[in-house]
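Blinded run. Sample ID left blank on purpose so nobody reads anything into the name before looking at the predicted structure. Input follows.
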Amino acid sequence: MKKEDKTMQASDNIRNKRDWLMVVLLFVILGGAFLAFRMLAFTEDATRAHVFYGTSSEPIVTIDFIKGDIITHYRQPVPEGYDDIYPLIDSQAQTITLLGDFTVGGTRQRVVIRYDFVRRSVQVIEEQSPNNICSREGESSGWPLICLPNRVRIEFESTDEDFIV
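Blinded prediction complete.
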């Protein structure tokens, strides 16, 4: 081999190593930014969680973590043929059950939400949808949960209340 070929080959190797180093460095920076956002974006403890159904701007249920109370704002409109009145609130199991919009065999599916006053968190534990993304999102104490195509969403609110009067 000629000396020029060896020099060019060494130069290409250095360039490839530099490219790989830049790619790895970029992934480390982006991964760090993502983790920082996930950990710091919703670090403030939520005082309330609002459960919305459909396109309504008024929550159907509010979970007050400070007072340890569940407030039902209105009843969910349910078509004929369904025996239960939604939302179903089970304070023993700490669950709220809504009727989702997704249907299987013509039957609307239920969305079951578990809440925890101590941890100030909410989790969708049961729902039927094509990919079951909502129930796989896990427990949240500040990150919004959106259940499509069931049209149920959970948003958190933080206030400056330090104590109950």
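Unblinding after everyone has recorded impressions. Residues 93 and 114 are 8 Å apart (CA to CA).
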